[in-house]
Write a structure and sequence with these properties.
Layout (H helix, E strand, L loop, with lengths): L10 H14 L4 H19 L3 H17 L5 H15 L3 H10 L4 H15 L2 H13 L13 H13 L4 H9 L3 H9 L5
Helix pairs in contact: 1-3, 2-3, 4-5, 4-6, 5-6, 8-9
Length: about 190
């Protein structure tokens, strides 16, 4: 089955594409620019047009959306960082994810500082969530092996998740999940 050919890109069509996307998803300015430019390049290639005109429309549309407060990198960074933290992503992993989405460094730092101010040790909390979801450390099923190769595999999982050695070791050496969660979360779970 052949793909439909793209429609000719105009400023109003670009506005509709951007607005429809923002109705469904939050986005950073850079991420929305990447999405819109991909559409502009596809249409320009198909109709043998210059994509420079479309690039001007994209920038004008992004400025208009920011003026209407429909596009805000700080709000997006706060929302995305908190969602990642709740899912068990380390601060490093959250920062890397936001950088890929094109969020400015100042917005990333502000979002992570807001979470630190609210929750304290965010990596320990995220590591507890990470370990619980993957059944590592005190949340593992069955008998826990003290074999170094098994522990090394679990440490590698934490390392790939962006957690420090000390946090991973603290989780894996713990035997009491309730005490660990009490230390990390206190009386509230998020």
């Amino acid at each position: 089955m052949a793909r439909r050919p793209p429609k000719r890109m105009t400023a109003s069509r670009l506005h509709n594409v951007a607005f429809h996307y923002l109705e469904r998803y939050q986005s950073s300015r850079a991420n929305l620019r990447r999405l819109l430019m991909r559409r502009v390049h596809k249409a320009a290639t198909h109709f043998d047009e210059d994509p420079a005109q479309g690039a001007d429309w994209v920038e004008a549309e992004l400025d208009a959306l920011e003026a209407q407060n429909l596009l805000n990198d700080n709000r997006y960074a706060n929302m995305k960082a908190l969602a990642l933290h709740r899912r068990g992503a380390s601060a490093r992993m959250s920062e890397a994810t936001l950088r890929v989405k094109g969020v400015p460094s100042a917005a990333i730092e502000g979002a992570l500082e807001a979470i630190r101010a609210r929750d304290g040790d965010i990596d320990l909390k995220a590591a507890c969530t990470f370990a619980r979801k993957r059944r590592l450390g005190p949340w593992s099923r069955g008998a826990r092996s003290e074999d170094w190769s098994d522990k090394q595999k679990d440490m590698a999982k934490f390392a790939r998740g962006g957690f420090s050695f000390s946090v991973a070791k603290e989780i894996l050496d713990s035997t009491d999940a309730d005490a660990l969660e009490q230390r990390a979360f206190g009386d509230r779970l998020f």
